Amino acid sequence: MNKADIILICASPRPKGTSAMLLERIRAVTGGEVIFLPQKDSLDDLILAMQEATTIIISGPCYINTYPARLIELLETAASAGGFSGQKLYGVINGGMPYIHTHRHGLLCLQLFAERNHLLWQGGFVLGCGAMLDGKPLEKHMNRKTVVPAFAQFILHIKEGTPSSDSLYEQAQSPPGKLMTRIFASLLTFMVEKHIKKCGHDPKAPNWYLREQGPD
Amino acid sequence: MSGFIYNYYVLAGGKKIFLDQAGEEYMMVIISDDSIGDWGQALEKAFSHAGTQLVRFTADTLNIKPCTACSSCSGKTYGRCVIPDDMQLLLPKIVGCRTLVLVSPVIFGGVSSHIKKVMDRMSALGNPRYQMRGGELVKGMNIPSLNFYLVGVGDDLSEAERSAFLFLNEENRNIMNVKGRTFILDSSLDKVSLDKIAREIAHE
């Protein structure tokens, strides 16, 4: 594979977050150029790079069950521009929840984009609990024993230009049981409430916009 | 879009009602991306026929920037988004409504970037606490009893696109911990069917 033909697009506005970390992990093996999705201004240069590439890898966070709006805008604009023919497309999406199903739509979206626009969908990787990593290495993931080798296998598929099956990430992550879920819910709530209080707010107060428009 | 001013009043028992400048109570906010047709306007008319008080915005004509994941709304400015754009008009309206209806072209099995920007930025209205529902973690919204409907619009959609759209909204309702439904409309839909959908939503 010609390394110059690979582009790795980071769809997160955070340059040091988990999406960028995963992409860098891929780039270290496959080579290619990491491009951060411009959060404002024109997407034309990036679309040109996508048209000229042979392999495109998109890694992004999960915002309310799929990729962020700016990536959707990139896909819309790229579809309008056209000019794709057989580019291999791989996707990675990571989200806070420890489940596959809450983030999977991102990959469905990329697959449908590929099918509508003459790219070749090669599969992707869904990573639960990605937000907890906050850019730290995958070796810190709660399911590291299974996730690390599965992600390495995914990278190998990209390097070899072969399709990656959903079962790869599905088998690497199992959802926590009910007891663990209850513990997670209490622990995470404790942590976020502590943070909100530290910032000088009452976490149990009605939303700010509701308070602002209420009578004095 | 009406640039209206409104207030709320707290009734006995803590129930809040929201009044527009004419003193009318409103229940519903419609936010539509009308870039592929006047579906938002058509639904507004249908809801009006069903007797629903509402306000409507067209997301594709507003200046709404993408969420930057700055985390301010979950910390420093808890519950408030710091990006100074037209989303600051929408958030107070959304937080005050009983029913939110988003109308979007179906784009690759999801919503358009205009509607997605609105959804991403609604994180400022999210409940920071985690709950367990159906054995799984969910977060929910900091809006009591919100109903959320997603109306997708598109002709010649494949089965995969339709099912991805339905799947997305089901996941959205689950993570937001809200009730609601998904509809997918195409240009063959007549006014009678549109009125029927509006009545169904209005009466749920």
Summarize the structure in words.
- The complex is a heterodimer of chains A (216) and B (204).
- By secondary structure, chain A is α/β, with parallel strands linked by helices.
- Chain A has 2 domains: 172 residues, Rossmann fold (3-Layer(aba) Sandwich), CATH 3.40.50; 41 residues, no CATH class.
- A 5-stranded parallel beta sheet of chain A has the order 2-1-3-4-5, with helices on both faces.
- In chain A, strand 3, helix 3 and strand 4 form a beta-alpha-beta unit.
- In chain A, helix 1 packs across helix 6 and helix 6 packs antiparallel against helix 7.
- The mean pLDDT of chain A is 93.
- With 204 residues, chain B is an alpha/beta fold.
- Chain B has one domain: Rossmann fold, CATH 3.40.50.
- In chain B, strands 4-3-5-8-9 form a 5-stranded parallel beta sheet, with helices on both faces.
- In chain B, helix 1 links the parallel strand 3 and strand 4.
- The N terminus of chain B is likely disordered.
- Chains A and B meet through helix 3, helix 4, helix 8 and helix 9 of A and strand 1, helix 2, helix 3 and helix 4 of B.
Keywords:
heterodimer; A: 216 residues; alpha/beta; Rossmann fold; 2 domains; B: 204 residues; 5-stranded parallel beta sheet; 21% strand
Mean pLDDT of chain B: 85
Q: What are the secondary-structure elements of chain B, in order, as H or E? A: EEEHEHEHEEEHEH
Total domains of chain B = 1
CATH topology of the largest domain in chain A: Rossmann fold
> Low-confidence spans of chain B: pLDDT under 50, at least 5 residues?
1-22
What is the CA-CA span between the terminal residues of chain B?
A: 25 Å
Look at the structure and give the mean pLDDT of chain A: 93
Major beta sheet of chain B, specifics?
5 strands, parallel
User: CATH first level of chain B: which class?
Assistant: Alpha Beta
Helix-strand sequence of chain A: EHEHEHEHEHHHHH
- Helix/strand class of chain B: alpha/beta
Widest beta sheet: strand line-up of chain A:
2-1-3-4-5
- CATH level-3 fold name of chain B: Rossmann fold
Total DSSP E strands of chain A = 5
Task: Bin the strand percentage of chain B.
Answer: 15-25%
Gross geometry of chain A:
globular
- Kindly report how far apart the N and C termini of chain A lie: 66 Å
The CATH superfamily name of chain B is: Flavodoxin domain
